[in-house]
Amino acid sequence: MKLKLIGCVIAALLLAGCATNNNLYQWGNYEDTLFAHFHEPEVKEEMLASYIAFLEKSQNKSKKKVAPGLFAEAGTFMLEKGDATAAVRFYELERSLWPESEPLMTMLIQNLKAREQTVQEQTP
Predict the structure, then answer these.
(1) Mean pLDDT calculated for residue range 58-67
(2) Does domain 27-122 have CATH number 3.30.460?
(3) Domain positions in the chain
(4) Summary mean pLDDT of the chain
(5) Where does the secretion signal sit in this chain (predicted)?
(6) What are the residues whose beta carbons fall under 8 Å from the beta carbon of 106, sequence distance 6 or more?
(7) What pTM was estimated for this model as a whole?
(8) Distance (Å, rounded) from C-alpha 34 to C-alpha 51?
(9) How far apart are CA 47 and CA 34, in angstroms?
(10) How far, in Å, CA of 79 to CA of 6, rounded?
(11) Which run of H or of E encompasses 37?
């Protein structure tokens, strides 16, 4: 009898350890936006606008942090649209919120600024 009880307790602890905490970070509509970006071009711009609005709204008003990588992803979306200034802004937000991303974000920011500088020098 004791062996069954111990087995049940161990099983319960293992199952509790497998539970995820989806409430740790804010994700917004990230999954839907990412899917739309690659598979539904007709709603891509609408989903992207909603995603950017979520990020801008959640910066200051929420107790939970925006999930890691979401600002960087928004920067990449902006870069694909041709808006390097917005991309740099989102990369800087990612770098400030998630210090472990600093080397990559710094490199991306420096490359974008160098590219922008080159373009300005070549423009008469």
Answers:
(1) 78
(2) no
(3) 27-122
(4) 85
(5) 1-21
(6) 95
(7) 0.75
(8) 10
(9) 9
(10) 56
(11) helix 30-39
